[in-house]
Structures are given as structure tokens and as C-alpha cells.
Specification:
The protein is α/β, with parallel strands linked by helices. The protein is 39% helix and 23% strand. It is built from 15 helices and 16 strands. Strand 12 and strand 13 form a beta hairpin. The chain is globular and about 75 Å long.
């Protein structure tokens, strides 16, 4: 950190050209936006570049260094990328460009020859928390610079909403420092957000003051991701950093349009992937899914991989093939380290990088059959049959009449919820099924349940297929759920968000 701080301050003070180079996902976009805004506000000569996914591909390359040279770059700062870019960084240094890497991905055995590397996953790193998103690491650089220059501590508060968005969207564990960052960022988003974030919230139709991690992950993040998946992610950076309110709204509308286009492509790709699964996947023997095909859009296959995991609960790799090269995304389940699995096959790969649950990779088309064989062997070795069964960890049992405002206030104190700080999961046994279940909307389950005089509505998102398990004659069910407030047309009510439901023969005696 000392080296990174000193070199960045030197570049700002001497009016050197600083180029911030980021990734095209939400974590990368917000990392670029935070550091660009911070250095711009310090008076630095700073610009940014995010590679086009289709024409430039992933990560730092020799071509991107040539582009930096054309900009007369003195200092290149990578965010959310760079930890495995050994050749590109070496080339940059040979050409006289200094390099600082801000990343959070797993490093290889050899590190790039950068001037400074900030990555809490370095084996020799002694920082107290290893699970920061890249935007968190970038924010730490801004903190280091602020402290060295003895700037006011609250100067950085204006960027904390972006740090929360990037951290939430990258699905890092919401514990320790991440939980504090996201809590502070949510407060800013709900009550005092930046111009760009405000524009995005309005276009997405999200209600402020109620916004939480779910709204970031499912409402805001897809719109930021969409411009990077289908085109140039720099449009999202412009929205998040502009000081012009009209320009922010204009860019937010572009994000909305791109997201709608992404949904259409996403739906078609998922349909094709499921058709391919019928031919290539045997659920009785295969403990991972590997699909590849020409013509798939590289910007959506990561989303489709996540959808397949929801359905089949297996590590999933999806690749699109173009001119003999397959590129794509890998997603995993809790009990399988997909980065380490790729490492075991690295002699077959052109490039790869990521972490335990998500990674990117490229491979020559002729190596695909052998890669598929070896990867499936690794999955079969490391995963048991039990690992392939989704599990719910229930935190406690309740009678429905125990649910009240006091309990809801206690639950709120555990927020914000996310990975490794999951929403508190309750089970209630032998509740009366008053209405439903019905399949509503986009495959959601709707019920009304009662117990000991207490009556609640329950909704299970994407649980529509469970309707078939509950016959129309059912009177009593067991349910697993979280408890949240729901606001609809100005009315606020307590609602149960169902995670599972099953019919029982009769009401247990203790709840009668």
C-alpha cells in the first residue's frame, strides 16, 4: 500500500497521465468510477478504459498497453483485473509505464512485475480481511492516499454508495468489513445518493428508502452489467461519474434499453442451452455441466450458467466458440472450488482467472474434448452425491403468532444480508393452508397460511413448480421462509418469503 500511495500521489502532483483500466462487470465499473472520481476531484490528469468484451476480450493485454502508450500514459492502475497479467505488465514496464494492480482475484504462482500490487488474496498479504471486492480494494487505495495527505476522513463518504453497489453485485461475503461498507453504502443510496445512482434507481423503478442488497443484485446490477455484456461498459462509468443530472438520466436510459435487449438474448441462449443439455448431460453420472456452441453471445453465458446451477445444482461452464477459440464463464456451488478445478486443467487453457465460485476462461476448440473429460473427472472426485442436493440451513422454528413488529426489528439488526450472512431462515410446522398455492407472475408460488389466529401471505419466487407437490385437497403444510416487510400501493405489511413448502397429513398436536 505504501508503494501504491506514494506512486499515485507523485503522478497527481506532477500532473502525469494516469489511466485506470478496469473490468466490464459491476465490480470493475464501480472500481473505475470510484478511483476516477477520487483522482479527478484531487486535480489529477486521469482517464479510464474498460475493454470491449467482444472486440478486446478480458483482462490486460499487450494491445491494451499499446493503447495506453498512445495516450502517453505514465501510470496505469488496474482495478478488478491484472493479477495474472504477467506478460502485459512486463511489457508495460519495458515501455516505461508504471503499473499498480488493485485486484481481489486469486493470483497465480508468479506475480506480475508491477510497481505495487494490492490484492488481499496474495499468500504473503497480512491485511486483516481477505474477502474485499475489487471496489473495496480500490477504496482502500483512496483511503491510503487520503491518510497520507491528511485529507478529511469524510471526503471519501461521497463514494461509499458505489463501493456498496460493486461489493453487493460481486457476491462477496457480507461479513466483517464488507458488511460495514454495504451498510454505510445502503444508507447513502437510500437517503443521499449520487446523481448517477439516483438516475439508475429512477429508471429501474426501484423505490428509495426501501432499497437493500436484493434491489442492488437484481435491480441495479443487471442494468450496469448489460452495457458491458452487449457493448462498452464505459457508458456505465460515465453515468456514475457525471456531474450533469440530464446526462446521468440519458445514460441510465441507455442502460435500461441494453438490459431489455440482454434479457431477450439471455432467454434464447437459455433455451438453446437446455436443448443441448438433453443431448450432452447425464444427471445420474455427471457432477458438472460443460456446454459450448458457436454463436452464443459472450455477454450472457455467465448469466445462463447461473440459471442452470439454480436448476441442476452443479458447477457449470458455458463457452462460446469463435474462430477456433472458446471463451466463457464458469460458475460454481458452495462445495466446489471452480478456480482450483480450472488450475488442474491449466495446461489445456489459454487463459483463466477468478475465484472459488466464479471464473472466466478461454481454450482452443481442439482442446475442448480433453478439457471436458478432465474437468468432469475432477468434479466426480471432489463432489459427493450429497453435495449435489441443495440444502436449506434453518436457523430456528416459529409459530406464526410469534411474528410481530418486535421480531422484525430484531431481524433488521442483522442486515445487510448476503453471502455468509444469509437472511434468517425460519420454519413453521403444521400451518393451515388458507388459500393457494397458486402459480403467479413469472413462475412464483403464492399462498395464504394461518396458525393460532395469525394469518400471513407468502410468496416463493421461482417456486412455481412446487404447486404440483401440493394437491388442491391439502389442508396443512410445513413452510421454510424469511420474514420481510412488503410495500404495495402505499400499504406496508409483513410477508413471508417462502424457500420451501411441503404437504403434511394432519396438523401437529402442539399447534392445534
Amino acid at each position: 500500500m505504501d508503494k501504491a500511495v506514494e506512486r499515485t500521489i507523485e503522478a497527481v502532483m506532477q500532473r502525469q497521465q494516469i489511466l485506470i483500466y478496469g473490468d466490464y462487470d459491476v465490480d470493475g465499473v464501480t472500481s473505475v468510477a470510484v478511483l476516477y472520481s477520487f483522482l479527478r476531484d484531487m486535480g489529477g490528469e486521469v482517464s479510464y478504459h474498460i475493454p470491449d468484451r467482444s472486440s478486446e476480450g478480458y483482462g490486460l493485454t499487450r494491445e491494451s498497453i499499446d493503447s495506453a502508450l498512445a495516450r502517453k500514459t505514465d501510470l496505469l492502475i488496474t482495478v478488478d483485473t491484472g493479477i495474472t497479467a504477467i506478460d502485459a505488465v512486463r511489457y508495460a514496464r519495458e515501455q516505461g509505464i508504471d503499473v499498480i494492480i488493485c485486484d481481489h482475484h486469486e493470483p497465480a504462482s508468479e506475480l506480475p512485475p508491477a510497481n505495487a500490487i494490492l490484492d488481499p488474496k496474495r499468500k504473503e498479504d497480512t491485511y486483516c480481511f481477505r474477502e474485499l471486492a475489487a471496489v473495496g480494494v480500490t477504496y482502500k487505495l483512496a483511503q491510503g492516499i487520503s491518510r497520507r495527505l491528511e485529507l478529511e476522513e469524510d471526503r471519501l463518504d461521497q463514494y461509499i454508495d458505489l463501493v456498496a453497489i460493486g461489493s453487493s453485485a460481486d457476491i462477496v461475503p457480507l461479513i466483517d468489513e464488507n458488511r460495514i461498507i454495504v451498510k454505510m453504502g445502503l444508507d447513502k443510496i437510500n437517503y443521499d445518493c449520487s446523481i448517477g445512482v439516483e438516475a439508475l434507481i429512477r429508471v429501474a423503478g426501484i423505490r428509495k428508502n426501501w432499497l437493500d442488497v436484493n434491489q442492488i443484485v437484481f435491480g441495479m446490477a443487471p442494468r450496469i452489467n448489460a452495457v458491458g455484456r452487449l457493448g462498452n461498459a464505459e457508458r456505465a462509468v460515465e453515468m456514475l461519474t457525471t456531474r450533469n443530472r440530464n446526462r446521468a438520466v440519458e445514460m441510465a436510459r441507455i442502460l435500461e434499453t441494453e438490459n431489455n435487449r440482454r434479457k431477450s438474448i439471455d432467454s434464447q441462449t437459455l433455451k438453446e442451452a437446455r436443448q443441448l443439455l438433453k443431448q450432452r448431460f447425464d444427471p445420474a453420472t455427471d457432477r458438472a455441466i460443460i456446454l459450448y456452441q458457436e454463436g452464443w453471445h459472450p455477454g450472457v453465458i455467465g448469466i445462463v450458467a447461473s440459471r442452470l446451477i439454480e436448476q441442476y445444482h452443479r458447477p457449470t461452464i458455458m463457452l462460446t466458440i469463435e474462430k477456433g477459440l472458446a471463451k466463457g464463464s464458469a460458475r460454481s456451488i458452495h462445495s466446489f472450488d471452480i478456480f482450483q478445478a480450472l488450475k488442474e486443467c491449466e495446461d489445456l487453457l489459454e487463459q483463466y482467472g477468478g475465484h472459488k465460485y466464479a471464473a472466466g476462461l478461454s481454450i482452443r476448440e481442439e482442446n475442448l474434448p480433453e478439457f471436458e473429460r478432465r474437468f468432469l473427472e475432477v468434479a466426480k472426485r471432489d463432489l459427493t452425491q450429497g453435495d449435489l442436493v441443495p440444502r436449506l440451513k434453518i436457523d430456528g422454528t416459529l409459530l406464526l403468532d410469534q411474528i410481530d413488529t418486535e421480531l422484525l426489528n430484531i431481524i433488521r439488526r442483522f442486515a445487510p444480508f448476503g453471502p455468509r450472512n444469509k437472511p434468517i431462515l425460519f420454519a413453521s410446522f403444521g400451518v393451515e393452508l388458507l388459500k393457494g398455492p397458486r402459480n403467479v407472475g413469472s413462475n412464483h408460488l403464492l399462498v395464504q397460511v394461518g396458525q393460532n389466529g395469525a394469518v400471513f401471505n407468502g410468496i416463493g419466487y421461482n417456486l412455481g413448480p412446487l404447486v404440483e407437490r401440493i394437491p388442491a385437497s391439502a389442508h396443512f403444510v410445513d413452510i421454510v421462509y424469511t420474514i420481510e416487510e412488503n410495500e404495495w400501493q402505499g400499504q406496508v405489511s409483513v410477508q413471508l418469503y417462502l424457500k420451501d413448502i411441503r404437504e403434511i397429513d394432519k396438523q401437529p398436536a402442539e399447534t392445534a
